Amino acid sequence: MNKLIEKALNEQISMEAQAHYLYLSIASFYEVQGMEGVATFFYDQSAEEQMHMMKIFRYINEMDGHAIVPAVPKPNAEFEDILSTFKLVYEHEKRVTLSINNIVELSTKEKDHGTYNFLQWYVQEQREEESLMRTIIDKIKLIGIGPQSMYFIDREIKEINALKNQTPQ
Length: 169
Description:
This protein is an all-alpha fold.
């Protein structure tokens, strides 16, 4: 495996691990707030990010590289409000998209067609993730973030999660 691409993919593993822990922390925060729908959504997102990380991890090793287990900074344990939480997640997803796109560009430059092909799944996944977060942010803005609104936001997220889990990946 090309060493530049191996390094970039190992950095991507770290980003996916950070997302895994961030979403796990968000899930826990909202679960203790009684927001079952939001908590379940983020538990599922956390598991998905772990799967993304492991997929890259296994790919590096399969391609005769060496996947490295990253040190992951501890995420925040508390969050300001639901809208700022989803905005934080959306910004993180945009950084992940940028990183994936940079590795795609590097794989093109280095003529690593296998990695380019491997990353196309991530390109599509990131488009879906960003779109989902924008949709949720828009719904939260429509509902509002007052105390009574939290019930409706939680229900809406629960429905979104149910639909997402019905869609074949």
